[in-house]
Design a protein that fits this description.
By secondary structure, the chain is an all-alpha fold. Helices cover 78% and strands 0% of the residues. It has helices at 2-10, 19-36, 41-56, 63-77, 81-97, 101-118, 121-128. The two termini are 27 Å apart.
């Protein structure tokens, strides 16, 4: 399951005061709610917006790419493909910059799924290369 992988990835994040790890663990509840109770999008959006604000306060952290990935998942489920694509593209840029290989593979897979649904051959070709 996506959330189990997410929580597992958190074990690699080291924050001296634990705030980033705690903040990201808090996301699990909001994402769980969306996945289990379709239609709770607004509550999840608010929780992810708060997580994004917190992640932006910490420089050079793995938190922001994870938040962007989950925001993209939310917008994709909300049928807001353009916003989802933009968020995944930014998450991918950051994962390359910070060398977050596991998240890169995961976000890239979600991004290419969206591209296949949209028949976006440029994105598909970029992923194949």
């Amino acid at each position: 399951m996506l959330l189990a992988h997410f929580v597992g990835a958190l074990e690699g994040i080291r924050a001296p005061d634990g705030t980033i790890k705690d903040m990201l663990r808090g996301l699990q509840g909001g994402v769980d709610q969306v996945l289990q109770q379709q239609g709770a999008f607004e509550a999840a959006r608010q929780q992810l917006a708060q997580a994004e604000a917190t992640a932006l306060e910490v420089s050079h952290s793995a938190a922001l790419p994870w938040v962007l990935h989950y925001q993209a998942c939310l917008h994709d489920a909300w049928d807001q493909s353009a916003t989802a694509a933009r968020l995944w593209d930014e998450a991918l840029r950051l994962t390359r910059q910070f060398r977050l290989c596991g998240l890169y593979r995961q976000a890239a897979a979600w991004r290419v799924r969206l591209a296949v649904r949209q028949q976006d051959e440029a994105v598909i070709q970029q992923w194949l290369n």
